């Protein structure tokens, strides 16, 4: 099997699986229980919390465990809205956000909130002038992606946040970092955001667990009320196996960052080299984006057909149109970067991981080229 859909999810590390199995079979107590077994697991949860905080440049008190990136963004964004809606009525985001952010903002219009979606350049980076010009005295929230999930573009969030705060320090800034952690070196205190979303299964950790970073001193209203777990921010019994696995994954992705990124870049470079063997291929990802994500469009093909052809050989990729938001069947990301329509339906996304090899890339490309040629023969008849 050759797995090149690592933006959708990654294979958990063996060390992650080991700690999770132990938590499921031996250390299974509820960390909210008052007996010694429960207290032991409470300590283990807090050790994992420290690992996540240390990995991404935060304090332990700023990390709240959630079910993943989508919930983290919902808690932050909805929490900011509930806290501020009586005083302010304007929010700003970008046209390239993940659906978990973009759909929330569009839903806000029903509450009478003014929603501004800022454009991006052809590289998929937010238009800074448009963003800053949109801010006024009624603006209370700005939400930015750190790394785009389709084309891998990187927003200069530290610089943007600094400029936003100079205009009005009271504006809350949320950053969706789901596709950034593990692909970039992330220091949350250095970035300066008020909140940040993280997902464990994007960094060789388990599914169903993530974290919300909420800067000390920032107040939001929680979405889920109950037993008061996670310091009242996210009630409900903790997912201990997931949390412990997340802690190990965060620790190891930082520890191995340099060597694993070098391996990933070698795979990316090899694929870019081999793609020159096919005519009329457009690379939608730039060399200024992350190494892990490569979006390509092949003229006179269909991405979904290529995907299903490759899966017969146990090779797995994804298509750009898996997450559309404009009702046209066209990816809102490709629309925002103004990709020519003739290239859109032939777009696929290749996402590399630490486990991929250059030999795998060659094997993948040989099959990919074969199916491109077969499909073109059919489509140009």
3D structure, described in words:
This protein has a seven-stranded mixed beta sheet with strand order 2-8-7-6-5-3-4, sandwiched between helices. A four-stranded antiparallel beta sheet has the order 9-10-13-12, with helices on one face. A two-stranded parallel sheet has the order 1-11. The chain is an alpha/beta fold. The protein has helices at 14-25, 36-55, 69-84, 99-108, 128-134, 157-167, 188-191, 240-255, 257-275, 303-311, 332-336, 341-344, 358-379, and strands at 2-3, 63-66, 90-94, 114-118, 139-145, 172-176, 195-199, 210-214, 281-283, 293-298, 315-316, 318-319, 347-351. The model is unreliable at 321-327 (pLDDT under 50). The protein has two domains: 2-8 and 257-380, Alpha-Beta Complex (Aspartate Aminotransferase, domain 1); 14-252, Type I PLP-dependent aspartate aminotransferase-like (Major domain) (Aspartate Aminotransferase, domain 2). Helix 6 (157-167) links the parallel strand 5 and strand 6 (172-176). It comes from Peptoniphilus asaccharolyticus DSM 20463.
